[in-house]
Design goal:
Strand 1, helix 1 and strand 2 form a beta-alpha-beta unit. This protein is of the alpha/beta class and 123 residues long. It has a five-stranded parallel sheet, with helices on both faces. It is built from five helices and five strands. The radius of gyration is 13 Å and the shape is globular.
């Protein structure tokens, strides 16, 4: 039963907070801070779920959805910008779940659990 999460984020404080939160719940958390080659890293590490929190999240999401190997991978996007336009862009690009900051630890954990559960039911 895989519980590998890849967190793509460039701010160290966010990386540490999310890594701590998910690791404490039993997930193996890999992190990557360079959005420009995140999809290559993703293909290599084969996570069960991706958390996109960096500035290049939309670009990475579009690339993931355009690749057969990662097209159905669950993706949680965390963003400080909660405008409906951003949410619409993320949904059109194929995001699995979209959360705006501030969010609680419980909200993040629930979203990750839900996404992994739904993904396993499909697979």
């Amino acid at each position: 039963m895989g519980k590998r999460v890849l967190l793509v984020e460039d701010e160290m404080n966010i990386i540490e907070a999310i890594r701590f939160l998910l690791s404490r719940e039993g997930w193996q958390v890999d992190t990557h801070s360079d959005g420009s080659d995140a999809t290559d890293v993703l293909r290599d590490r084969k996570p069960d779920l991706v958390v996109l929190a960096g500035k290049s999240g939309f670009d990475i999401l579009e690339e993931l959805r355009g690749d057969e190997a990662t097209a159905d991978l669950p993706v949680l996007m965390l963003t400080a910008r909660g405008q409906s336009r951003d949410r619409e862009m993320a949904e059109k690009a194929g995001v699995s779940r979209f959360m705006t900051k501030p969010f609680s630890n419980t909200e993040v954990l629930t979203a990750v659990r839900d996404l992994l559960y739904v993904h396993r039911q499909r697979g």
